[in-house]
Amino acid sequence: MLNVPTLSPSLRENTLSLADNLTVMTDGVFSSLLKMKEYADLTPVVRLDVNESITFSARLWFRSILNGTPPSQEDLLVFQEFGKRRVHQGMPLPALLRAFRLGSLELWRGYILIAERNESLRGELLFNISPYLLEYFDEMAQLISQAYLKEQFRQARWRESLQHQLYGIIFTFPEETGEFHKTAAALGLDPSAPRIAFAVELPEADSNSPQFAQELDSVVSGIARRLTVAEDFLLRVWHHGRLVIWVPAVPGNAMNANDRMMAGRVAELREALPASAMMGVGLMGQGARGWASTADEAIRALDFGMRCDDGRRVYFYSDIVMEESVRGTDTTLRYLVSLIEQLSGDPDLLLTLETYFEQCQRRKAAASVLGIHPNTLNYRLERIEKLLGARLDDVGWTTKLYVALKLRRAGPRIALNRDA
């Protein structure tokens, strides 16, 4: 409990004079605060709230020193609300406490001016007012810090609860568009904004470790930094042993444009990952179903990369989208595989077809790579057309054969996927 000193009549009169000029003092504090970036960047509404809190705090001091009593519980509750609001306004605690230091400094300057004019009051100011002023502002700073930290913790728990609710909607009930929009908006996210999912494999991460959350935060921070995106705009969850991160896509851009943009930053994405980590990148998705789809695609791309293990570390679903689409239909898969099986009895024909597509269907280049005469190449291609009933000048057929060859190169991976 604060012990409020009793003022002499002369000091009371001078203190009343200071209180009457309250605006000069509070304006000085507010002007000093606006030199700090944390205050300069505030919206006009929040600035007004800060100014009102400075005025309230100054009046609280003068009421206490003039009445000879500590602030009432009702006043302290109002005072603590300022600290709670600063959490939601995004103000760091050090910036909040800076206002108290400036406030106490401005008050003391006012009393120094009194001491300069009234030598008889110097002792009272030095031995009575000065200790109380320091103790008072220390107590009030502790009080508002506690209110700030409690609210920050409560907000973190609240956000965590909402995030789990959002993940449940995305992965389990994506058809609940109303709940998705409401929950995303409550988290400060734009539910209509398109996003791209990353799925990250972290072999060395231990979900039971006390440092686990920090490890995930470190990966998310690294990605945010390299993509020059505010960390608050990223959404992350530990899903079936993988870190899934949704990053904002460029609104209005086509799916392919956003995918190419991410592909252009693949080196930066690699740098953001721990040495042993791998990443899958999904296609752009919008809404609950879209966010769920891009996460599933990122996981599929990651699974492909882990089976492939060719050292790239970052894998894009767009690179396997045709094969994945085919795998989704048993009949289509069997049909395409059967095309290549018809050529398996003649390795020369199979090699010829592969080389033909590798050389972008340029016959002269394909013949040169194979080391055969162009007429021999033409003969082999005619045999392929006859065996398959195909036409290599038909776009439909060339597309089917191209995908079939890619599926063949995937080899055992197809069987693994079908058995999963």
Automatic annotation (TrEMBL):
Pfam families: GGDEF_2, HTH_30, RsbRD_N
Top-level taxon: Bacteria
PucR C-terminal helix-turn-helix domain boundaries: 349-407
Boundaries of every CdaR GGDEF-like domain copy: 179-303
Domain annotation RsbT co-antagonist protein RsbRD N-terminal: ranges: 38-161
Homology family: Belongs to the CdaR family.
Identification of the protein by name: CdaR family transcriptional regulator
Species this protein is from: Sodalis ligni
